[in-house]
Write a structure and sequence with these properties.
Elements lengths: L1 H8 L5 E2 L13 E2 L3 H12 L16 H14 L1 H4 L7 H13 L4 H9 L10 H16 L23 H8 L18 H8 L2 E5 L8 E3 L5 E6 L2 H5 L11 H12 L5 H14 L25 H13 L5 H6 L4 H44 L7
Parallel strand pairs: 1-2, 3-5
Antiparallel strand pairs: 4-5
């Protein structure tokens, strides 16, 4: 009772539908939980059966994705859904099918999507646009359009003209090839980026934010990482994305969280359990040596170059970072030798002080004993 009153006070009407009864015709404000319904959504949105898991991934898990799904639905459906026309999961599926099958301009897409809501879309241009933006976010996990009457904390990309495919091609454009051959060493992992360079990881649900560096509130750098591997595995046949984008994104994940690095795998499993992240992040295929060259990346090349530069230039600012830093071993050994010599000098100094103190103490005890001894005269 109290939770219902609290939700109604803040305009939030999300409720939990019994897992076995959720269908596509239910309100989008029901929280889906059953694997049967998750499979149904995957089949309708991406024509992918989550019962089939390709190697080397674990069972595909959509729990992290549906956490994002419900968050986005809540953001767009607040104020009793006055700003969007979407009401059910099937509405999202219908709009998504139109976006995938009809490569028309934005104006054509608006007219076609209006047919999903007969007699409701008339004079509701902004509500129709918001419905299309919500469907794109759930279909592609790319923040498009501003949240109606809301504040999302950042400015989203705007799709105003051209086709959706053209918009995504512009959003994920090729990066220029840097001068010289830059190789991303095996030490270049997310765990080491955080330990050595002090760059904090921030998990993002927006694919467009993947590998973006930003400044935190504590004057530290933050690395935004898109963690929805299970979602990306299902998008490998999605032709709305630029060709090769999905595969390259999976390779950046294999770069940052390699399967062969047990420490990285254990570290991520602990973080995933704590933050409800996708458990398949550390299951991506292992990169070969030639795949670690920067010119093998096209869409994420510029951000990887910026990240590599920040990683190489970062200096340890704490004893913990200095101790774990293995990037400059040749320069590190003289410091270790000097530190060891200083430590031995201090230990020997302390030992000598203790030894001198004991000698003084014993000498004082001996002289005191002689002073207290009785004097015997010679007979």
């Amino acid at each position: 009772m109290f939770s219902s009153l609290l939700n109604s006070s803040f305009g939030c009407t999300r409720e939990v539908q019994p897992a076995s009864s959720t269908t596509l015709d239910d309100s989008i404000q029901w929280t889906p939980t059953s694997r049967v319904f998750l499979r149904q959504i995957a089949l309708n949105l991406w024509h992918f059966d989550i019962a089939t898991t390709p190697s080397p991934y674990k069972t595909l898990c959509l729990q992290a994705y549906f956490k994002y799904y419900t968050q986005q639905a809540d953001l767009f459906m607040h104020d009793a859904a006055q700003h969007v026309l979407v009401r059910t999961h099937r509405d999202i599926v219908k709009i998504s099918e139109i976006l995938k099958q009809n490569p028309g301009q934005r104006e054509v897409q608006n007219k076609t999507c209006a047919q999903v809501f007969p007699n409701k879309a008339i004079g509701q241009g902004e509500a129709l646009s918001a419905s299309i933006h919500l469907a794109i976010r759930l279909l592609l996990m790319v923040d498009v359009g501003n949240i109606p009457s809301g504040f999302s904390g950042h400015r989203a990309s705007q799709w105003e003209q051209g086709t959706l495919r053209q918009f995504l091609s512009t959003r994920f454009s090729y990066s220029p090839i840097p001068q010289g051959r830059v190789r991303l060493e095996r030490i270049f992992t997310a765990r080491n980026i955080e330990r050595f360079a002090g760059i904090e990881l921030r998990w993002t649900n927006n694919l467009a934010n993947h590998l973006r560096l930003s400044d935190s509130e504590h004057d530290k750098l933050e690395l935004h990482v898109f963690h929805h591997v299970s979602f990306l595995v299902m998008q490998q046949q999605n032709n709305l994305y630029p060709q090769g984008l999905v595969e390259e994104t999976l390779r950046t994940m294999a770069l940052l969280f390699p399967r062969f690095d047990k420490a990285s795998v254990t570290w991520y499993e602990w973080i995933a359990a704590k933050n409800s992240l996708d458990p398949n992040f550390c299951c991506c295929s292992t990169l070969r040596a030639e795949d670690r060259l920067i010119d093998k990346f096209e869409f994420w090349r510029e951000r990887l170059v910026i990240l590599k530069q920040a990683f190489d230039e970062a200096e340890p600012n704490s004893w913990r970072q200095w101790w774990h830093d293995r990037r400059r071993g040749v320069h590190r050994y003289p410091l270790l030798v000097a530190a060891a010599a200083l430590f031995l000098t201090l230990v020997l100094g302390v030992v000598q002080c203790i030894e001198g103190g004991l000698q003084v103490y014993l000498a004082f005890q001996s002289s005191s004993a002689k002073a207290r001894a009785p004097y015997y005269s010679r007979d």
